[in-house]
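Hey, can you fold this?
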Amino acid sequence: MVLQFFELIGSLGLFLYGMRTMSDGIQKAAGDKLQSILGFMTGNRFAGVATGFGMTAIIQSSSATTVMVVSFVNAGLLSLVQAIGVIMGANIGTTVTGWIVAILGFKFDISAIALPAIGIGLPLIFWKRIKKSEWGETLVGFGLLFLGLSFLKASVPEIDAHPESFQFVVNLTGYGLLSRFLFILIGAGLTVLLQSSSASMAITLTMAFSGWIDFPNAAAMVLGENIGTTITAMIASLGTDVHARRAALAHLMFNILGIIWIQILFFPIIALVDSLVPGSMDSKAGITAHLAMFHTTFNVINTLFFINFVNWLERIVKLLIPLPSAEKAQPHEYHLEYITYSMQDTPELNLLTAKAEILKMAQITEQMYSSFVYVFNNPTKKLKDEVEELASKEELTDRMQEELSRFLAQLSMENLKARSAENVNQLMRIVHELESIGDSCFNLLILSKRRYDKELFIPAAGLDALRPYLETVHSYLGFIIKHMNKHLSSQEMEQAIDLENQVDGYRNTLQKAARYRIKEGSDVKAELLYMDMVRHIEKIGDHLLNIAQALREVR
């Protein structure tokens, strides 16, 4: 009995390790496509559903997707409505794994699938010249997953051979609705314990295939697994801001409310599934496919129902988790949590998070520069509020540099493909340059305040000559933000170099003119301050060129 228990645990471990390896390989192979899919997140709720489905179908983990959604909401990159749409799609996407396991794992000779997959995958991992190791990982993980499933099937005894083992399950049945909710709780608990709805689905399919539970009870366990998978997102939301906690709660409510209202249609849905899937749900040949269809049908119906009430769900969540009071709120506090998921790493998704945060940081520096330009063009305006706001943003960029550098350092230690690892190095360089731009913007505002406080007079000719210089740097900053996180083509790199040359040309002309005005008797303090401004603006151009060079290396 003890040996059989450890065989069961070992089989499950092999299944989970195979899933993790396969997911890592898919993430590496589809890294660029994940970026494209995430682009849909900013669309409407239907685009969010499509995004959640596509992301989960690719990485084979709804938990990883929902944890990512929580992190994006925490960073302010997704609204709550968009996040709810993505979560709904993730619930549908996770049913793909059930179909793969149900069809390939129980209808074919698993060794005929698993061993050839490992045999093809291993050479791809070790043959570095062809640079297809990520596909090798995917195939090896696929093979290990199905080997684990094969051992799992073998370690769960047939009911006919061990009728006494079935007695404890029999004791849980026969109580009608109470039994159904009991199996829902078992499914939820199993998923929380394993931290993988795919693994608990595999166990449910195996138990049903071996005759341990009938179809209605197995279907109830599948419903419970939908609740259990929300726990990962709830854990990920601990310590995050109010918006992330709302997203995690919305995920939990969506699944619980769906399971409650679907009880009314429980047996009609079973009848619908039976009519859609050939074969009998009471036979070994048919029960696994019927369960996969039930899983899909429930999540599709639940999504179609709740997608009309997303705004209501948002209001309820906001009511349950209100915003903190104004005196407790700290709008410029910043913390970027590194995403970990106990059963599956998400390095490529973490890379996307880093890129999104870097774009956000770039946009903040652009706001800082725009604030300086506004102040420069309004020299008689009192600057107390502007200085405080820019100082706050400068502290925010400092904090972002610290958090992003720590985040990227952790990411560099993950099992990334070579190109992604190089991208991490370039992103760290970009973060440093953006923080330096923030410092320069703040220094420019301090110089503007000194000009106001000391009543320093800069000749109109000097101010007029400075404005096209400011516009050129502003255009340069806009160019970099437009191409942030993208590979710069040779033509785009030439544009960046041309803008840098324009900035240098303006600097030389403006500094020469200031020195000439000093010789002609202009206010020395005012002209030196003017030259300091020119120097800080030119430094921003230098930092932008460094960012462009880093983007040229990003692939």
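Oh, and this one too while you're at it.
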Amino acid sequence: MLETVAKGFKAARARFKGRTEITAEVVDDALRDIRVSLLEADVAFDVVKRFVARVREKAVGLEVETRVKGARGRIEVTAQDHFVKICHDELEALMGPVDTSLKVRHGGPTGVMMVGLQGSGKTTTVGKLARRYLAEGRRPLLVAADIQRPAAVEQLRILGGQLGVPVFHEAGLTPPQLCRKALEVAGREKRDVVIYDTAGRLAVDEPLMAELEEIQRETRPDNVLLVCDAMIGQDAVKTAAEFDRRLQLDGFVLTKLDGDARGGAALSIKEVTGKPIKFLGMGEALDRLEEFRPEGLASRILGFGDVVGLMQDFEKHVDQEKAEEDAKKILSGDFTLDDFVAQIQMIRKMGPLGELMEKFPIFGELPAGFQFDDAHLGRIVAMVGSMTAAERQRPDVVTDGRVKRIARGSGRTEKEVRELLKHYQTMRAVMKTMGSAPGLLSRLPGIKQLAQLRQLQGKGMGDVLGADAAGVEAALGGGGVDPAQVAGQLQGLPKGYQPRMPAGAMARARLMGYAQEPVTLESAGDRDRRKKKRKQERQARKAARKRSKRR
């Protein structure tokens, strides 16, 4: 999602790396990268022009303070940090302020009219919205007013059946008659919300708009929401402007942002129409309707993830008390393969792995085109499912013969089973160390930059990380855990030892700001003696080869 947009901002950030001042030349080069990526993402040209002009006006001539007083004291910042803050603030302003609330009628059922083009995901969104109202304790009624698309009525009935929500439809009535009669039925049956699923077309045409206007006159809905397919890019903005002109929209629902959408509609639609984006539709499941948060989307575009959104997903799908118990068990290092699989199943509830990882700050540091393999989680579950209860409780009892049996039972190779057992043992050691190392979260790529951005905005990390914020901020301020010590503890090596990384990996780690210089416990004298011994061994092998040839 939004990969095209994020690519330009990442390139712009790189232009400021190591610079101590913001000059007009550097700003223009950075804005060129941003302008190209926004246009490639189908953001409206006028919107791009105004956005770039606002960023340039604020950035050029800016006097950069290298030490800034934030919410928790003074912090070290760079020219890059200042530029990122300007971009973040302008992206937020471009998409907000947001209003995700829906109007409520007092003294009768609240009406919600869903409109949009054919194939935009209206009917599925009606089901998602009904599920949201159910969670709030409301009693919705769905109205199948789309008599143009084959099977539209049946699709809505299936969704209503899954939710336990009644669906109103009568054959032989026109859509305006259907909607008017549904309003009467809702009053009799004490339904406090009526959601109208109206017809769409392949493009905006006069018959469609006239029909929708008549439905609006007959029912006087409190909320008129346009469902926009984000994959149609620039056309979504044109469609939104025409619907708003004829129906006076209250807001938008952007769908299919989890697909190949370039995301231009999300950045254009609010600026062009002045109406807020209410929700984002992510996937087909009925629980995949998110409240739109400009701050979260701006952070993801800039490569900082969306930790607040991640926490909201977690709270929606996970029981808090059980999660705390599981966390204590895992961080103690005393967890079994059954616990491991339970965590995988919890992650699957929260959505596709790639979409979930986009919300982690580490995602912005991954190579372009990096993909997460959701199927790998399924393979792990299959292998663990082929073990006996005793093997899942104590994986150290798994012998070579048992590995063969587990591989045959799960349809995987013996190598994969051994790798799973090895990763499990490594993870136990890592989790045990993390449990005794407060502030280790501060070592995640992107966390430091995210914390600095929020401090420049006058905010802390409390609303993002909750109780962990103090430990992370202390670690960022110079305290916390030395990764070299952690690495040594993980492998049972002397304290202070860190295995040597390949040169390329170490260089990348230093650039990302979270790796320390490798620490070696070998003295200079020991190193000289080792080198001399190796040289003698090489000379002895060479002499032995010469003697064997003479014979």
